[in-house]
Amino acid sequence: MFVKEVVRLHGFPKSIVSDRDSIFLSSFWSELFKLAGTQLRYSTAYHPQSVGQTEVVNRCLETYLTCITWKKPKEWTKWLPRAEYWYNTNYHISLKQTPYQALYGQEPQPIVKGDVVRTANDEVSRLTAERNGMLAELKENLAIAQNKMKQQADKHWREMKLEVGEKVFLKIQPYKLQSLAKRINQKLSPRFYGPFEIIEKVNAVAFKLKLPDDCLIHPVFHISLLKKVLASDTCCQPLPKCLSENWELLVKPEKVVDTREGTDGRTEVLIHWEDLPEFERSWEDAQVLKTVSRLQA
């Protein structure tokens, strides 16, 4: 698919922004892109919007296409080529040009020059009028999509300036506690860990932190996950040792703290998990825990 849709038309890219998908992290793709001179750039940890804001563009396109399909539920496939053309030939503030010009270095020739209303051929006149109507609707839909994205972004925007050498708390929310038992205990309340020192400013919204040497997670984080340390005597909350690179707690039961009878009559045990504090203890089905532990042994 990559060769068919990208390489065939544009050749191998200079760089690719990935959401740290296992495909792009594999040794095969890493070696192939290395030989091709393609730089792999991964999204920041626990922030799928990524440094390049790829998903922001995707959401804008989804809203754009939703407007089209909602108004033309039976004809939306016919609109897709024109929708793509209008989007790629529309001026983008972030690029300071159209995507078409950014890719090919020049603007495309217009499909029809000028606003032609009548021609010598009735069919051409009909198609031209239809084209003008479609482009007007597409222009309106794109403006609606861009305005919705701006309103959504403004709701969550907060201005915070961070510099190298400053210390910040890292927000993890939420993470999964992958227990050995059937039930998964999820701690949904956000927590701040740290503080950690900023060792590199990747760009205005992404920062690299100095994490413990045995930490598996990627050290670059979006600014929305950081909180500036304002006091010098703040308490320290270290990251869990069992936190995987996918932000999951890979835990093992350390001891049984208590027992009780569950609502269904089954015996439940209160487990203290290895390398986790007391507040992470959870009630698990005793029989399921024994079965899974035996399989893991």
From TrEMBL:
Residues 1-107 form the Integrase catalytic domain. Residues 251-297 form the Chromo domain. Residues 117-155 form a coiled coil. Gene3D superfamilies: 2.40.50.40, Ribonuclease H-like superfamily/Ribonuclease H. The keyword Coiled coil applies. GO terms for biological process: DNA integration. Keywords: Coiled coil. GO terms for molecular function: nucleic acid binding. It comes from the Eukaryota. This is Integrase catalytic domain-containing protein. It comes from Cuscuta europaea (European dodder). The lineage of its organism: Eukaryota, Viridiplantae, Streptophyta, Embryophyta, Tracheophyta.
